[in-house]
Amino acid sequence: xSPTMSASAEQAQSLVHFLISDFENETATTKRVLSxxxxxxxxxxxxxxxxxxxxxxxHIASADAWFLNGIASGEFAGGEGxxxxxxxxxxxxxxxYDDNIPQSIARVRAMTPEQCTRIxxxxxxxxxxxxVMLQLALxxxxxxxxxxSTYLRPMGAKVPGIYGPxxxxx
Length: 170
Hints:
mainly alpha
């Protein structure tokens, strides 16, 4: 649905349920990619302009929660936040993701039909219906997960299958 299309509240809720189920299915793949970052390579970056592997892993996990919670609450406060000092490895990021994402998904799934039709303001950058914002959240996650997957082989890790087997899983 484009931002200019309108949908009934029930149609919007059906679309939110479809998209959040898709997002939930993607979390297993996201965790495989996050888990593949090898210990000792947290500071790896393919270029000085890129985030380090650990910062990118944290960005994926924290932005997933930030987007989902913002969609559920109807507002995007602040940013995704600083990486906690307790996050020192990809395994720490995966644990944080496991501890936080299921509740964020549940919050979106529990949205009323009316909440699913509201227009959300993404920190003044854009205003989109909740349905489109959820689609954007999914695209954001998949984009950065793909970015992190390109770091893996240069770090000496194996790339997990994402939408089928990878050269390392065949």
